Amino acid sequence: MQDWLGRLASALAQADSAALRRLFLADGYWRDHLALTWDFRTFGSPALIAAGLMAAAGRHSLCGVRAEEGACKVFEHRTRGMTAESSFTFETDVATCRGHVRLIRASDDSGDWRAWTFFTSMEDIKGFEERAGMRRPRLTNHHGYVKKSDAGQANTLDPQVLVVGAGHAGLTIAARLSALNIDTLVIDREKQIGDNWRNRYQSLILHNETAANHLPFLPFPSTWPNYLSKEQMADWLGIYASAMGLNVKTSTNLIGAEYDECRHRWLVQIKNPDGSLLILHPHHIVQATGVFGKQNRPTIAGVDRFAGQLIYAGDYAGGLTSPGVRALVVGTGSSGHDVAQDLCTGGAQVTMLQRSSTCVVSVEPGAARAYALYSDNGMPIRDADLAGNSFPFPVVAELHKEMTKRIAEMDRDLLQGLRDAGFATDFGEDNSGFLMKYHRYGGGYYINVGCSELIIEGKIKIKQGVEIARLEGNTVSFTDGTSMDVDVLVVATGYSNMSESVRSLMGDAVADRVGPIWGLDAEGEVRAMWRSTGQPGFWLMGGSLQQCRPYSKYLALQIKAREVGLV
């Protein structure tokens, strides 16, 4: 491994493009997270990789490339043959960095090791390292943005960064910024931190393992269960904000924001809990208001004549049913399944309206395979994040096709039971499964935590492949000519793109500059999230707990680089 890394360093030092090309497989990739490009980039093919590395080396000197002690593993890959992988460290003129490389041994007489995936990642900006571990401060100045004077008036200083949203995304970026000595204020419209979880239906639990979901600097207690309840998650966010000393104002709303191109700062109006207005001038705004935009609210003919109760899934808090209540849930994504399960458990007679097929996977053993890095072999979480992020999305898609086949075999009885019940399943457009559906579309799948069994047992009925034609009284008529009477209609048809939440919060001009959010760009990187947008001083923070932990650091590093003049 060190020999390959040494040849890479030598080729870069000598600007030898041909030597660089020989180090990579024909279908090899280099993925960079800030270390050499100050962006999230993926380069495929030896020619593009060599050109990208040569250009990066021209901007930033690179030295000290060394495999981490004891990190190299050699094994037989299922499809690639003899494989070696290792994490490594290196430095540039401005940062300390880590990386990860996977080498495949050539099957020809040469026996050369060539890179399949090569990942470079910024760890710290030199001279501006995170205040964590050995770098923790000896003394602490306890201060916050909002301080009460003797007269009870709030005196607020201008923060460098304003974070809108105090869910897990907003709190993780605030913690990272605080560790980099960046003054940060978080505002949230809810009354308490964690209310975005606390106020949802009682049966809600996380659908992936606790081991993958730890927040930066402060992991969940080791005694907690493998899948967290919404109450645990809600309470932990409050504990986290307090323990990390974050400046959070609840019951507070952003009213308006204008960017001053000359001064490189925002003019922001926020509305305090008492109704008063406050003017702030942050250099940066981070929107962390959730993964998606507004709820999709399809037009349903006759909705004004519907005699039952109409609820959108995002507003569903549970506790609505009594035995015998007839409920129709429109939509079979995660929210639709969760709501249907909650209604059924409460005694309702539930039917789910499935308009198109859904990718379904068991929570165990199926979905757990996707998070095996975090639950197997006791790998430190920072190493698991590094190894996981080292896979470019084109490789992830290919690997997930094989993984999806294995999961489908494990879930054979579950999937056959669903099909027998009239529920249509799929494995994604290219058979790459639920995780790629998440990355591409943010939905279209369900990790089964109990609803599928209710469908198989006939406790939840399925109406498949039709739409609602009209409502009249308590009757729902469908496009196939059939009808049913319902008391509760829950619409769980997903959410609009996050672009619409940017438009709602920041206005049309900012939304138009930012452009599409989520989905993958031409290189296979996520669009707009955690990286520079088309609007100076405006950033987007969101995603799963697993994503927010590492990507909050990358976003904080980009903001710090701008604050100290490196970018």
What does this structure look like?
The protein has 16 helices and 27 strands. It has 567 residues and is α/β, with parallel strands linked by helices. Strand 4 and strand 5 form a beta hairpin. Helix 4 packs parallel to helix 16, helix 10 packs across helix 12 and helix 14 packs antiparallel against helix 15. The two termini are 33 Å apart.
Residue runs with pLDDT of under 50 for 5 or more positions: 138-155
Span from first to last CA? 33 Å
3D shape: globular
Q: Count the helices. How many? A: 16
Structural class: alpha/beta
CATH class of the largest domain: Alpha Beta
Number of strands: 27
Mind summarizing the main beta sheet?
A: 7 strands, mixed
Average pLDDT figure:
90
CATH fold-level topology of the largest domain: FAD/NAD(P)-binding domain
Based on CA atoms alone, the radius of gyration comes out at: 25 Å
CATH superfamily of the largest domain: FAD/NAD(P)-binding domain
Number of spatially distinct domains: 3
Helix content: 25-40%
CATH architecture of the largest domain: 3-Layer(bba) Sandwich
Amount of beta strand: 25-35%
Write a compact overview of the structure shown.
With 567 residues, this protein is an alpha/beta fold. Helix content is 29%, strand content 26%.
